[in-house]
Write a structure and sequence with these properties.
Largest interface: A-B, 37 and 34 residues
Strand order of the largest sheet of chain B: 10-9-13-11-12
Number of strands of chain B: 27
CATH topology of one domain in chain A: Alpha-Beta Plaits
Shape of chain A: globular
CATH architecture of one domain in chain A: 2-Layer Sandwich
Largest sheet of chain B: 5 strands, mixed
Strand content of chain A: 5-15%
Strand content of chain B: 5-15%
Radius of gyration of chain A: 19 Å
Oligomer: heterodimer
Structural class of chain A: alpha+beta
Helix content of chain B: 25-40%
Distance between the termini of chain B: 70 Å
Largest sheet of chain A: 5 strands, mixed
Number of helices of chain B: 39
Strand order of the largest sheet of chain A: 2-1-5-3-4
Shape of chain B: globular
Distance between the termini of chain A: 45 Å
Number of domains of chain B: 7
CATH topology of the largest domain in chain B: Rossmann fold
């Protein structure tokens, strides 16, 4: 068993557990996009970054891939982590403004503006489809092609795959191309939906008062930020 | 063994081979046989010498004569001269550009002299394809010592003692890495040599593999023995065919000699090495991506931990080091860890190989001890920047590294200091950049590279780089805003923090490090929409226009001259500059330095063309009158100082309809132009005519009115002026601060020139004059003294001749006129007798560490004092702003150096008082002063009428409607030099030295222009 602390709480987990799983075990919510319980972790979307500290040195790692190691100190909601996550969401949103999943994430994390040029793509190269095809459907019909900004997902040689059974698993799992956001301003340049602003503060979902150890709890502050001033 | 009189060692590194070194070898052998010298002279191929840009290189041993840039047709001459006549061939020998004297012996060449060869000790002396030659120079000695006398633990402790750190970029202690891997229980273990060198401009690893492949093999075998590995891989990129060939050959030879394979040297230790060729993905240099590439999967980095030493190749413990690290190992084992640790700095031991590329005189590969100052590498070994350009930055560590500015030239190069300065050691690439490099464009270049080379897995790397590139491109194309810059910084930080592998984490470095030291350049692009390096094409019309502080569209008037339309040319000139004839004589012509024609032969003689047009109209008396509005504005502007800034502002304000009055302290208008520039460079009549033209536009010039003396500024402010422009220049002469300055015979530089120019008698005839300083004032004073019949004129300057701020042609002229130049000397005291100067005591200076301006600081050399006999001493070491009297009773903020503080608009702390020219910027040039006048005219207009989007007439640049065939070859016509009056006549009179172009020559010269402004039209169409 490996002992580590997350947000100051000591926890013991089995060898091979990731930081994301350990946090989940404690009921701490870390947002993810390319992670799925049934698939191997990949670490592509970088939304699940957390801060790990060793003495004064600290760095951010993706919690879905980083293994729990003895004595590690993990912080899931520090100011820099939240700031980075907001930027990651903004980047995603600029790429796929039509995705409801990403729009919801934006609302939940207080992303109120997109400062980049809108792209209207329907893929974020998270690789969920590639993994479901390989790991769950045992088909390996699709995969990544190319490098850098030319990277995309396709079948070998871009032709219809013989091994594809048209199961639809890839579409089912896609966070970007399937469920569309029908919010008011999505088609507008730089606009985001934010129709889900009236979502309850995220901590209510996952913590009760006794579980809240953060002082001040930054998560709620993020939520408070979203409540119109008059109603605070 | 056969003995030869001489050995000809031909370099066969990639650089020399691609320049034809094998052909040279053939030709040499043929010629030597032909001359019957085959028994006396031996020709052999050797590894890379590192001076790659000079290939093909041949070194004649034993005398060590170095020949460069050989061509097949040179060979017969070379063989005859050198081996039969015994004379080294002068023209094929290295000539340092500055000294201009050839250096035949390789050990005397600066590039080689300062290097310390350890890893590269065999370079240029062994044939990389013959194992016997490697063994002859103690090769595989360390291996036999390791296998027969040392245990693996001994080796580990030796490597740890040496303090060797990974040379691939990370800088992880090699000994520690090996030990961790050694302690792993899983077997088998692997070792990997990372030869996937991909940084732009880096070629250290390639050179080692090509010139000394066995040193890498030996290091790997020793490493394998220490770690307990049974198999090794060399991952080398396929773009290095020569390296692949030679390392394969080396493995084959080592196997034949029993140095690789089973039971090496009878020790019972078995080890094999395989070569894997990489397809050239930059990201495969990252260790986990490299491992996955060897395993046959896509080269994508994975999460660390687990680290390769725990779970590497085929999920087994793996040690991975780069080529240079492995090549260091044999030296450490044979000479001991302590010896290695004695080199370098506290936390960076040994030597490091750097590839010195970019805007540098000596391009090539150098090995130096860790801790050597950055400037020593660039200026001593690298020979500085070619083409009289100024050093701007050096990029270390490849795309992931950073750009270091000239303030850091004294930085000792080691892992820690580079990291502190915001860069990294990386694999050792050093890309030198000069003033023509735009740092925003550099960031753009590296981002483009990384966008292509990112594996694309992490969203923040792939999209982050793309977005950063978008933002930087916006900035370079004039669409930048301060908000975008803020976003860029925020994004860069997030990309750095949240990406998984080394490539992504450092992908933001091109942006972050250029922002750290060159934020001003970003702001210049964003706020002023100007790229002073002249790179960002969308921001200007032509490089010459971009370089001109007064925004003169030189390309347009040159086009008109080429068509013979002189009136159009003159109007174009007068649009931005009221002093065409003056500037045609004394401008420092920044336009010419940026002229693209330079890349073909020589720049267009822009200044001479300007003078031609100006003089053409002055002489014909048809000086075109600039249009002024018929109805004048009611606003009155007071201008203090009638130099180029003051008169310039008056000219531009008059064109807007303002009533302007210029106050001049002396009895002649023109400021420094009239007073400090001698007749021989600028005849007063020319200046007077151009000033007259300004007066004709309604500008009133009041001579002999010194504000602060004749009338106080306060009173003037109540005289109905709406705004003021203070352009009084720098008039106070700075004192030398040495004893004896009050002696009779000491004149201040500017005072002296003014007295001569204004006709006061000076007694210089038959006197010995010593002038102190290196600027134009000093040189002008010296040339004036010559003309006044001085017996002997000496200029004393504390730095070198190249560093003199005076115009190059002026310095050359003055030397021609018999003026003595003593550089690297400074005055200690002025000696006198009976209150009269008899001489000056000076001290020699040595150049020491680099100052903030990127120049080496001169420091006095103790005990080197010497005396120069002189009757007259003229200090001309600079001026300061003398404004106390002017502003008496008023509070005006000034900088520490006495210049007036102004905002971007040129406004001082008193709202309606503006300042510009030298008095606010410090000593500058005529054209800068005119530019300041332009800007202040706009500021005053906006101050009085509020901010408006008005485009001022002088900012409108209409393209010249002169036909030009862009597809035609450039006109072949070499640059024309204006005629000059003969030397004998020159030194006896104040006649103007340089003569004006004739009409025919001017038109021909103008046709040399490449019309760069047409390109912008093309860009716009796109």
């Amino acid at each position: 068993m490996i002992k580590l602390s997350i947000n100051g709480i000591e926890v013991e987990v089995e060898q091979g557990t990731t930081l994301l799983e350990a946090a989940k075990f404690l009921g701490i919510n870390i947002p993810t996009l390319c992670y799925n319980d049934g698939l191997s972790p990949y670490g592509a979307c970088r939304l699940c970054v957390v801060e790990i500290r060793d003495g004064t040195a600290s760095k951010m790692v993706s919690s879905c891939t980083y293994p729990a190691t003895e004595g590690l100190k993990v912080f899931t909601h520090t100011e820099s982590v939240l700031k980075a996550r907001k930027m990651v969401i903004e980047l995603h949103l600029a790429t796929c403004p039509g995705s409801k999943i990403i729009q919801d994430l934006a609302s939940k994390h207080g992303v109120r503006q997109v400062r980049f040029k809108q792209e209207y793509e329907d893929c974020i190269n998270c690789g969920l489809c590639v993994r479901i095809c390989e790991e769950q459907m045992m088909a390996k019909a699709i995969g990544f092609v190319g490098r850098g900004d030319k990277r995309h997902i396709t079948t070998p040689f871009d032709i219809k795959s013989d091994v594809c059974r048209l199961c639809g698993g890839c579409m089912y799992i896609c966070p970007a191309c399937q469920l569309r956001c029908h919010g008011p301003n999505v088609q507008e340049e730089g606009a985001i939906c934010n129709a889900c602003l009236n979502l309850e503060p995220p901590c209510v979902d996952y913590f009760d008062d006794q579980m809240c150890y953060m002082d001040p709890c930054v998560v709620c502050e993020q939520a408070a930020d979203r409540i119109p001033k008059s109603e605070r | 063994m056969k003995h030869y009189r001489a050995h000809l060692l031909i370099c066969t590194g990639t650089g020399c081979v691609s320049n034809g070194s094998f052909k040279i070898k053939e030709a040499l052998e043929k010629e030597i046989t032909k001359q019957g010298l085959a028994d006396e002279i031996h020709v052999d191929t050797k590894g890379c010498n590192g001076f790659c840009e000079r290939g093909p290189i041949v070194i004649v041993q034993p005398e060590g004569v170095y020949y460069q840039r050989l061509k097949v047709e040179d060979i017969p001459h070379l063989v005859k001269e050198h081996f039969i006549e015994g004379r080294p061939v002068e023209k094929l020998i290295f000539v340092p550009p500055k000294e201009k004297q050839s250096v035949p012996n390789i050990s005397d060449i600066e590039f080689f002299k300062h290097q310390r060869l350890i890893t590269l000790k065999n370079r240029g002396r062994i044939n990389p394809e013959k194992i016997d030659e490697y063994i002859a120079f103690d090769g595989y000695d360390a291996l036999s010592k390791a296998l027969t006398q040392l245990t693996p633990t001994d080796i580990l402790s030796e490597i740890k003692t040496s303090g060797l750190r990974g040379r691939g970029g990370g800088g992880f202690p090699t000994g520690t890495k090996w030990e961790l891997c050694h302690n792993q229980k899983k077997t088998p273990k692997y070792i990997i040599c990372n030869a996937d060198e991909g940084d732009p401009g880096a070629f250290m690893d390639r050179s080692i593999l090509e010139s000394d492949p066995h040193s890498v093999l030996e290091g790997m075998i020793i490493g394998a023995y220490a770690i307990g590995a049974s198999e090794g891989y060399i991952y080398v990129r396929d773009e290095y065919p020569l390296a692949v060939k030679r390392i394969n050959l080396a493995i084959q030879q080592a196997e034949e000699y029993g140095l690789l394979g089973d039971d090496i040297l009878g020790s019972g230790f078995n080890f094999k090495i395989k070569v894997i060729r990489g397809a050239g993905a930059f990201v495969c240099g990252e260790e986990t991506a490299l491992i996955s590439s060897i395993e046959g999967r896509v080269g994508e980095p994975r999460q660390r931990p687990p680290f390769p030493i725990q779970r590497g190749l085929w999920k087994k413990p793996t040690t991975i080091n780069n080529v240079e690290t492995w090549a260091n190992v044999p030296n450490i084992v044979s000479r001991g860890g302590e010896w290695f640790a004695s080199l370098g700095t506290e936390n960076s031991k040994g030597t490091k190989i750097f590839s010195l590329v970019g805007k540098i005189t000596n391009t090539g590969l150098v090995e130096v001890p860790m801790g050597i100052p950055l400037g020593d590498i660039i200026f001593n070994i690298g020979g500085g920047i070619p083409g009289n350009k100024k050093f701007k930055a050096v990029q270390t560590g490849g795309p992931s590294g950073g750009c270091l500015p000239m303030e850091l030239l004294n930085l000792p190069v080691d892992y820690q200091r580079l990291a502190e300065a915001g860069s990294i050691m990386g694999s050792g690439g050093m890309v030198v950049m000069d003033e023509d490099t735009c740092m925003v464009d550099v960031a753009k270049y590296f981002l483009t590279f990384l966008l292509d080379e990112s594996c694309g897995k992490c969203f923040t790397c792939r999209k982050g780089i793309q977005r950063m590139l978008e933002l930087v491109t916006d900035i370079t194309e004039g669409r930048g805003t301060l908000k975008k810059l803020e976003l860029l910084e925020e994004l860069a930080q997030v990309v750095k923090d949240t990406t998984q592998c080394g490539l992504g984490q450092t992908a933001a470095n091109p942006v972050l490090s250029t922002l750290r030291y060159f934020r001003n350049e970003y702001l210049e692009h964003i706020v002023d929409k100007h790229c002073s390096a002249g790179v960002c094409r969308q921001l200007f019309i032509s490089p010459c226009q971009n370089a001109c502080p007064a925004d003169t569209n030189a390309a347009a008037y040159i086009a008109y001259i080429s068509a013979g339309r002189f009136e159009d040319a003159m109007l174009e000139l007068l649009n931005t500059n009221p002093f065409p004839s003056v500037c045609g004589r004394v401008c420092d012509h920044p336009c010419q330095l940026k002229c693209r024609r330079n890349q073909i032969d020589d720049s267009v003689a822009i200044r001479s063309l300007k003078r031609f047009v100006g003089d053409y109209f002055l002489q014909s008396g048809k000086f075109p009158k600039m249009r002024v509005p018929d109805t004048k504005l009611q606003h009155k502007i007071g201008i203090i100082g009638s130099g180029p800034a003051g008169l310039g502002a008056a000219y531009f304000l008059a064109r807007l309809g303002y009533q302007t009055t210029v106050f001049e302290e002396h009895n002649v208008a023109g400021g420094m132009l009239a007073e400090a520039i001698p007749e021989s460079r600028l005849p007063n009549s020319i200046l007077a005519q151009e000033i007259k033209a300004i007066e004709d536009m309604g500008v009133e010039i009041k001579l002999n009115s010194k504000i602060g003396v004749d009338i106080s500024f306060k009173d003037l402010m109540n005289n109905g002026y709406d705004a003021f422009f203070v352009a009084v220049g720098m008039y106070g002469d700075r004192s030398l601060g040495v004893e004896g300055e009050d002696l009779l015979g000491v004149f201040q530089g500017v005072d002296f020139l003014r007295d001569v120019n204004l006709g006061k008698p000076q007694y210089i005839a038959n006197q010995r004059v010593a002038i102190i300083g290196g600027g134009n004032t000093a040189v002008d004073a010296a040339r004036t003294c010559v003309r006044m019949g001085a017996k002997e004129v000496t200029i004393i300057y504390r730095r070198t001749q190249e560093e003199m701020p005076a115009f190059l042609e002026e310095i050359e002229d003055s030397l021609e006129e018999g003026i003595k130049l003593i550089t690297l000397a400074a005055p200690v005291q002025i000696i006198g007798d009976n209150g009269k100067v008899t001489g000056i005591q000076c001290i020699r200076m040595d150049l020491d560490i680099f100052g903030k301006d990127g120049r080496r600081k001169p420091v006095p050399k103790k005990g080197s004092e010497f005396i120069i006999d002189a009757d007259v001493i003229i200090p001309a070491i600079g001026e300061f702003a003398d404004i106390e009297q002017l502003f008496e009773g008023l509070e005006v903020e000034t900088w520490d150096n006495g210049t007036i503080k102004v905002n971007e608009a040129g406004q001082t702390s008193i709202p309606n008082v503006f300042a510009g020219g030298d008095v606010s910027t410090g000593p500058a040039t005529v054209i800068k002063a005119i530019g300041a006048g332009q800007k202040v005219a706009e500021s005053i207009d906006q101050f009085l009428f509020g901010k408006n989007n008005k485009t001022y007439p002088w900012r409108i640049h209409k393209p010249a409607d002169v036909e030009f065939d862009m597809d035609a070859e450039p006109v072949e016509f070499s640059r024309q030099k204006p005629n000059r009056i003969p030397l004998e006549k020159r030194i006896k009179s104040f006649d103007e030295v340089e003569q004006v172009f004739s009409k025919e020559i001017a038109i021909k010269e103008a046709k040399r222009c490449l019309r760069c402004e047409m390109e912008v039209e093309l860009l716009k169409e796109k």
